[in-house]
Amino acid sequence: MHTFKPLFAIADLITLRIGLDTAFEIDDHDLLRLGMAWPKLQILELKDRTILSVPKITLAGVFRFVASCPDLEELTLRLNAFGDIAICARLGAIRPHLCLRKFNHCRSSIKDPIQVAAILAFMFPNLSTLSAEHYHGGPNGGLLDFTTADVKEKTYLERREKVEDMMLPLLKCHDTAQSR
Prior knowledge:
CATH topology: Leucine-rich repeat, LRR (right-handed beta-alpha superhelix)
InterPro entries: LRR_dom_sf (IPR032675)
Mean pLDDT: 83
CATH class: Alpha Beta
Order of helices and strands: EHEHEEEEHEH
Radius of gyration: 16 Å
Low-confidence stretches: 137-142
Shape: globular
Number of helices: 4
CATH architecture: Alpha-Beta Horseshoe
Distance between the termini: 41 Å
Strand order of the largest sheet: 1-2-3-5-7
Number of strands: 7
Largest sheet: 5 strands, parallel
Strand content: 5-15%
Helix content: 25-40%
């Protein structure tokens, strides 16, 4: 959270792009603080370049965050969707976020790709781009080569790809509508 505190003084912040060679040490509460500090945020990009860490941000935390940033159009961050998805149901009434068009969930940990895809489709009905790119700062344009990753990471990669495959018809529909 230390990285962000000096930026809280910029209340009208619209775009924030940060890349670190380590994991962002923020949780759901910290993410909500970012949203409350920057309600006009349109683009948030938090790229970390870690390989075997599990993020502390959950789907529930993302929902609370986007509710505090009604104009958010692009979001890049890793999240932990490995916990009980039913936690999202305890949030109460969730309103879909209509502005978010691009979501890069990087190297998120996913337990149930079907549930995650359903939640993302409901939460972000106008999404036109969903990706799971992971940046490590090396060759290949900075994208991680998963052939060198461990077995758990390969499993998460397969689950992220399944989420994208399930979301593809919805994404194509929105992409076509926006290009008209």
